[in-house]
């Protein structure tokens, strides 16, 4: 089992699946979602539109959906909607579920490597330290021991919080 931390742009990750911090519509947005759609090209949005809408959402909060990855080096994009921190009753459970659901989908689709951004830590407002603790602890669960996990964290601040949490946990 391996967990790596890289300060950088997740769209460059040469892994089997990259995780997108999306929203329940899965039709794109700002932040990492916007960057992934720009880098992947229109094929990604077309693939997202194919995902069925159930009760108004393609991907409910805390769940994940898998699509092809257009022009990205990754084979798949796994779209998850993390919690909006101020609007969720149990943001910790929803965030853990986003990481867990994403890794289960990766394993079900034969992936051996996965890259994550800091889900919910941008416009969705999750406090970094709390988010890092959840992200690292779910990645360390036995169920995911055969997946190589890399966090692509955009800023030095976020990367340092994750590094500290990883050192504390292993
Ligand atoms: N590579 C890695 N990380 C990035 C990149 C990148 N290219 N670009 C930004 N980040 P956010 P959220 C970091 O806001 O909080 C969208 O509009 C960013 O600095 O992208 O889950 C969706 O459509 C931050 O640390 O995602 C949703 O509506 C982290 O990625 C909503 O935002 C996540 O920030 C989701 O909000």
TrEMBL record:
Residues 1-170 form the Macro domain. InterPro entries: Macro_dom (IPR002589), Macro_dom-like (IPR043472). It holds the Pfam family Macro. This is Appr-1-p processing protein. It comes from Photobacterium gaetbulicola.
């Amino acid at each position: 089992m391996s967990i790596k931390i890289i300060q950088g742009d997740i769209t460059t990750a040469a892994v089997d699946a990259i995780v997108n911090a999306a929203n329940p519509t899965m039709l794109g947005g700002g932040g990492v979602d916007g960057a992934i759609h720009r880098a992947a090209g229109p094929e990604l949005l077309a693939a997202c539109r194919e995902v069925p809408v159930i009760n108004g959402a393609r991907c409910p909060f805390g769940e994940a959906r898998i699509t092809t990855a257009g022009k990205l080096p990754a084979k798949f994009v796994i779209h998850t909607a993390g919690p909006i921190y101020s609007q969720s009753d149990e943001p910790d459970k929803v965030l853990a579920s986003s990481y867990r659901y994403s890794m289960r989908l990766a394993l079900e689709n034969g992936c051996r490597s996965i890259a994550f951004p800091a889900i919910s830590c941008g416009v969705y407002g999750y406090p970094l330290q709390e988010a890092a603790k959840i992200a690292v602890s779910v990645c360390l669960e036995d169920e995911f021991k055969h997946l190589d996990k890399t966090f692509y964290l955009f800023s030095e601040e976020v990367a340092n919080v994750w590094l500290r949490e990883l050192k504390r946990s292993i």
